[in-house]
Every structure is written in structure tokens, then in C-alpha cells.
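User: I'm putting together notes for a lab meeting next week and I want to include a structural view of one of the chains we've been expressing. I don't have a solved structure, so I'd like a prediction I can at least talk through. The sequence is below, exactly as it appears in our construct file.
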Amino acid sequence: MNPSFKEIAALMDPVERPSLRELVNRHRWVTGPPTPLSMRSITNRHTNQKTVNLRFLSYNTYLLRIDIPLGDFIKSLGVEGLLQLAGVPDVKDLFAKAVENVGKNKLCELLPVPLKEICKGASDIISFVIEHLPISQFDALQNLAGNVINLLSWFGVSIPEIETNATPAAETRAGEIGVELAKNYDLIALCEVWQNEFRDSILAAWPHGVPISAGPGPAGGLGVMGSGLLVIGANSKITPVASHVFNTQGVSGMFGRLVDSDLWAGKAVLFTLVDVRVGAIELYSAHLYSGGDLLAAVPGMDVKAPTEDEKRGIRNQQVDELIQFFKSTHKPWNVAIITGDFNIDAHNQTEYNDLMARMNQINMQDYWVAQRTAAPGYTNVSGHDEDAVEITNRMPQVCKRTKDSHYCDEPAPAATAKDLAPTGPGDRIDYIFVERPTNDHTFNLDLTRIRRRPFERQNKTEGMNYSSDHLGLDVTFIASPR
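Assistant: Thanks for the context. Below is the predicted structure for the 482-residue chain, given as C-alpha cells.
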């Protein structure tokens, strides 16, 4: 039995329940809706035996174990880096400045036994030690100080302690997220699944296995984290195709990692092909630059955390790289979707206009806006400084729920000047971009109304009442033959 008008309307937009004209406009057409308006033209898309419906979620999971080896990084700078940090011209001056803290005779202890006594009687102990060191000059200085962080303090450089910990209730949340995803979704694109332990906890919800497409992992060396991207084909056939790690990752230069946390990751775009029987969806999932979050500056040096203008420039460069990657991989007969956390707030008109100017180059629509006349809604809790209590307290401001416990109220309320202030409750930084229909596409792709989901936890541990500091974007893709 064919679905009725009310059933199709409720599927496409359960919030506003559109009229026939509105329902026709909720579907996507190459050259506009058919004339005269016909319910049959809509019904055929939903009743064809080849039509495929996929419930999709785009979600930043906020799963991170903070484990930044600053000591290893500083050691990788070697003596050249220490010279710059200490503000001295050569190695001898570097040792001289260091031994102000330990005394010259302590230097002699770095040498083999036969040389220690000779060293103490040398006219120039510093030169003698440098000449006869059996280990690297950096290791010698580190041994004197006890560790790299202490050594830096001798030169007036203060590095804040970064503990090895995780975002609140991360391990528990990862398992809970997996259960929720397995229960409700056919296709999922995740950001910030930073460590394999969290990925494994999510995937445990499919005990017999599930197809995945994973973004690039750590590149080696001092790369602590990879891209954090993960696509899950829960009830869909997916094929990993390619990925691109952004060449522009953050503040450049020898000391960039001291002021820019993004440099410890490898943010990227991941391309996954989704088989929908009548054709293929090209799913591009991405996570863009945030920036900062470490030292505000390196004392005594012209090394500072990125400014807002610098952050904007880096994000724009990454969007440009994403577009070039898209152009090199996209096939015109497929329908493309780009999704993820762009860290570009749609409420910032300048940044948003820059983003949309670029996305229009590749025929992409911001589909949240395409479906609405109301102001865009928040997709994350801002300014919480990794604090579970702040996330818990701010989430009801970002996502009011009076009509449905699973979804935020719609249409999203207009943002006020107070909301958009730096201390406002949230931003809209997560997107679903959909390629506009073209004659080259071999099938129709329609989308139901995008809804925002807060995923409130049943077991509220560690003060964290929600599964993430972001909202999930929930939508159903409807692929039908032409």
C-alpha cells in the first residue's frame, strides 16, 4: 500500500507538516518543481522498489585523551631550539646560563670518571666539558636539570603542566555512543574519535563487526593523534576511497607546537563512497582547524598563540584544500555530501560568507539553511574549557527541548546579540553540505528535515550529562531512481 500524503509529509518534515506545495519544495529538483504540482511525482520517489532510505548522523563525539609529550617535542628542537629559547648566541653561552643554577663543578659530573678530576682543575671548565662530552649537548643539559621542563625554567621559559587525562567520562561515553548509533542509524560520520581505544569502544556495539572508513592516523614521530575521523556503515555498503591531511595545520615555525594544539593532530578530510543501489553518494567528512589552547606566548620570544585573524586564514586555507581534494576525486554522476565540524561559526557573517563563497564553487548548499527561514541553531556548547559542569549547564540553553525529548525544539530560535557574544552558549560550526541536483546525477537524493540531537546520557557520570559538547545532526537520505 502506497504511503499517504500525511505519511510522506511527516517523514520529510515532522516539525512543520508541510502543505502539498511545501512538500514538493522539500524534495530536490534539477530545474525546479514539476508543473502542475503532482502528488504522484513525489509518491513515485518514495514507493519505487529501488528507493533506499538511510538514516544518517553527523556527530563530533568529543572523545579525547590528552597526552601531549611537550618534553619530547622540546627535545626534538635540539640545541638550536634551546639557543633561541634561552636568547643566547652560542652553545658556550647556553651552558654558562645553565650552570648559573648548578655551579661549574656540577658540569664535570657529566664526564667519564678519568676526566672528572681534570675537568675540575681546568681553567675554562665550560669549554672543557663541551669538548669532552660523551653524550649530546642537549642530553647533557637535560641531565643537569633533571628533565626538559626544568631546563626550560632555567632559561625563563614556563611550560604549563599538561596532565595525561581524558575529556570527561570519555571511555564510558564512547561505549554509550556506540550503542545509540547501532540502535538508530544506517550511516554515521564521526569527528574527534581521537584514540583507537575510543574507536574500539564505539565499534563494540556491533559484536559481529561493521564496515568502517577511518581517517588517517598519527603520522609518526611526534604526531600524537591522527584525524579523529570515522565513518560507520551500520546498515549501508561503504567503501573507503581516499583522504587528505591538510598541509596547513596551524602556526608554523620551530615553536608552533608550544602555542597551537592543532599541530599535535593531523586534521583531514575523508572520502567514503556509499552504495545506494541506484547510484553512489560521495561522503566527504572533515574536521577543520580550531587553534590555540596551549601557551599564549613563549616568554622572551616572538612566538604567540594564533590571533583570530590567523585562525580564520588557516581555516580558509583548509577549506581551499578540501575543495581541491573534492575536485580531484568527485565523479559528476554521483551526489556529493560534505559534512563535519568546520569550526566556522555560521553566526559570524564574515567567516560564514567566506565559507559559502568557497562551497558555492563546487555547487554545495548548506542544507540546514536550505530547509529553513528561521535563524540557524547552535550545534555545540562554546567556551566550556573542557568542564563537564559547564557543558551540562549550557546544553539546555543551546538545545531547548519542550516538544520531543530526543530532539532540540524547531525551528531554532533567532540568535540575539547576547547569544552571539564571546560568552554566548554556543555556535553553529557543524554542517551538512549537499551538492545541488544536476542533469549528470544518475539518481534523485532527497533529505528529510535535519534535526539536532543532544544525546542526553542515562548514566550521568563525572558530571557529564550529555554524550558530547556537540549536537548530532540527524537526517534521512532518500535515494530514488530517475
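A couple of points you could mention at the meeting. The mean pLDDT is 89. Residues 308-329 form the longest helix (22 residues).

User: Perfect, that's what I needed.
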